[in-house]
Amino acid sequence: MKFSALSDRAEGMYQKVKDRKRNLVAKEEMGIIDDDKKEKDPVAIIVERMKEGRVRNQAFLDGFAEGHGFVATTFSEKVRRSLKKTGDNTTLSSYFWDKKGVKINKEALC
User: Fold this and answer.
1) What separation in angstroms does the CA of 7 have from each of 10, 13, 14, 19?
2) How confident is the model at residue 104 (pLDDT cuts 50, 70, 90)?
């Protein structure tokens, strides 16, 4: 079966993808590890940030999920599962610093 020729734009995109994949295969065969290209798991990143108190609220979490191509509810569930595996509290809102700040301010007023 013969296919029609690709457009110039499509041909350029095809060549870029093909070259990138060939480079990856060649690096693997030679044992070259490219740490710059390896991204950490988004769930691991957000769990680490939550434990450090660097997540403000659910809107931040949802935006982070959308930015990494996840559906917000699915991403939250993955975060809960990750927290459960490590034996931590699975209530996401307990990690948000926005609520912690409100509690501190109410206690300071008393």
Assistant:
1) 5, 10, 10, 18
2) very low
Neighbours of 75 (CB within 10 A): 20
Q: What is the spatial distance between Cα 17 and Cα 6, in angstroms, rounded to a whole number?
A: 14
Helices 72-85 and 42-52: crossing angle in degrees, nearest 10, is 70
Angstrom distance (rounded) from CA 103 to CA 110: 11
Whole-prediction pTM = 0.55
Tokens representing residue 8 in the block: 């110039």
Domain range list for the chain: 42-109
At a CB cut-off of 8 Å and minimum separation 6, what does 14 contact?
6
Burial 38-68 (b: 16+ CB within 10 A, else e): eeeebbeebbeebeeeebeeeebbbebbeee
CA distance 41 to 2: 41
Rounded Cα–Cα distance for residues 7 and 13 (Å): 10
